[in-house]
Write a structure and sequence with these properties.
The chain has 339 residues and is mainly alpha-helical. The chain has 13 helices and four strands. The protein has one domain. The relative contact order is 0.13. Converts cobyric acid to cobinamide by the addition of aminopropanol on the F carboxylic group.
C-alpha cells in the first residue's frame, strides 16, 4: 500500500503546487535521452526507411530505460531506506502530473491578455502550444489556451492517473506486481514525451516520429475516453447546481458530433465537450513551423470567447481532478478492505 500512498501524495501535491523550474525533473531527463537517441540515429540512418526504423529504436530504448529505472526504484530503493524511497517515489508521481503547472502557464496568458499586451500574450502562449503564435489575435489566443487545457486534461492528468490506478488495481490482486503502480505511468509519460518531441507530421519528423505518434495514440485511447466521461459528469453536476442543463446538452451534442473531427483519435474527445460548453468553435486552421495546416473546426456555436474562459476551463479541470481523487480514495478503501 505504500506505493499507492506515494501515488496519492504526488497526485494531491500537483493539485496545489506547480513544478519547480530549477529542480531536476523526470520529463527533462526523458527528453534528454530522446534527443540523444534522435541525434545518434540521424547520423546512422539517412533514408526514409532508416529513419522509420530509428523511430522504433528510439521508442524501444526509451521505454526500456525509463520503465527499467522505475522498476529499480520500486524494487531496490525501498530495501535501502523506506522513507527516502517513499519521498522519491512521491516526487516522481508529482512530476508526471501537470495540472498545477498548466494552470500557472495558462494564467500567464490570461494576465497578459488582461493587460492588453498582444506580444506578451503570444509569447506566453508559445510556451504551452506547438503551433506558431506570432500572428494570432486575442480571440485565437484564448481559443488556443482553452484547447490546450482541454486536451491536456487527458495527456497531463487522466492518462498518468489511469495507468497508476490500473497498476494499483492489478497490484491489489497480485502483490508481486506492485511495481506496476509506478512503472506504468512512467512508461506512459515516456511515450507521451516522445510524441511531444518527435511525433510531428512535418518533413523533418514524419518518419522518425511515426512510431512514437502511433504508440501515443494507442496508450491514450482509453484515458481520452475516460477523460470525456469525467468531464461530462463534472459539467452535468455544474448544470445541476445552476438549475440549467443547456451547457450540458450543448457539451454532450458537441461530443457526439465532433469527437472524431480532430486529426488525433483522442484529442477531440475533450476538446469537443469544451467547445460545446462554451458554445463556440475551436481548432481550425493553424500555422506550424511557418506552414499553414488546414484543420476542421470543432463545435457548432458562434459565441465569442472571453479571457475569463481561461479561468473557467481551469476550474472545470480542477473539479475533474477532485473526481479522480475521490475515485482513488474509494479504490484505496477497497484495497485496504480486501488486503
Amino acid at each position: 500500500m505504500i506505493h499507492f500512498f506515494a501515488f496519492l501524495c504526488g497526485f494531491i501535491l500537483d493539485f496545489f503546487i506547480r513544478d519547480f523550474e530549477k529542480f531536476p525533473h523526470i520529463v527533462r531527463f526523458i527528453g534528454n535521452t530522446i534527443s540523444a537517441f534522435e541525434k545518434l540515429f540521424r547520423k546512422v540512418f539517412k533514408s526514409d526507411t532508416g529513419l522509420l526504423f530509428s523511430g522504433f529504436l528510439i521508442v524501444f530504448f526509451n521505454i526500456l530505460i525509463w520503465g527499467g529505472a522505475a522498476y529499480l526504484i520500486d524494487t531496490f530503493l525501498y530495501k535501502v531506506n523506506t522513507l527516502l524511497a517513499f519521498l522519491f517515489e512521491s516526487s516522481l508521481f508529482f512530476q508526471i502530473f501537470a495540472k498545477a503547472s498548466l494552470r500557472f502557464e495558462s494564467m500567464k496568458v490570461y494576465h497578459a491578455i488582461k493587460s492588453n499586451d498582444i506580444e506578451k500574450s503570444r509569447k506566453a502562449l508559445s510556451m504551452i502550444v506547438g503551433r506558431d503564435t506570432d500572428r494570432l489575435d486575442y480571440e485565437h489566443i484564448i481559443k488556443a489556451v482553452i484547447e490546450t487545457v482541454a486536451e491536456n486534461m487527458s495527456d497531463g492528468i487522466v492518462a498518468p492517473w489511469f495507468y497508476a490506478t490500473l497498476g494499483s488495481i492489478i497490484a491489489a490482486f497480485n502483490t508481486e506486481l506492485i511495481w506496476l503502480i509506478l512503472v506504468l505511468p512512467i512508461i506512459y509519460k515516456t511515450v507521451n514525451t516522445m510524441d511531444s518531441m518527435i511525433g510531428y507530421k512535418d518533413e523533418k519528423y514524419f518518419y522518425i516520429g511515426k512510431a512514437a505518434a502511433k504508440l501515443d495514440d494507442i496508450v491514450n485511447f482509453l484515458p481520452a475516453r475516460v477523460s470525456a466521461i469525467i468531464l461530462l459528469f463534472v459539467i452535468f453536476i455544474l448544470s445541476l447546481v445552476k438549475g440549467s442543463f443547456i451547457t450540458f446538452t450543448n457539451s454532450l451534442q458537441a461530443f457526439i458530433k465532433y469527437r472524431y473531427v480532430h486529426s488525433s483519435p483522442n484529442a477531440g474527445q475533450t476538446e469537443s465537450i469544451i467547445a460545446g460548453f462554451f458554445n463556440t468553435k475551436l481548432l481550425g486552421d493553424a500555422y506550424y513551423f511557418g506552414k499553414l495546416v488546414k484543420k476542421k473546426s470543432i463545435g457548432d456555436g458562434n459565441a465569442a470567447v472571453k479571457a475569463d474562459y481561461i479561468i473557467e476551463v481551469n476550474n472545470i479541470m480542477y473539479f475533474a481532478y477532485t473526481v479522480l481523487l475521490i475515485i482513488n480514495l474509494i479504490i484505496g478503501g477497497i484495497i485496504c478492505f480486501i488486503s
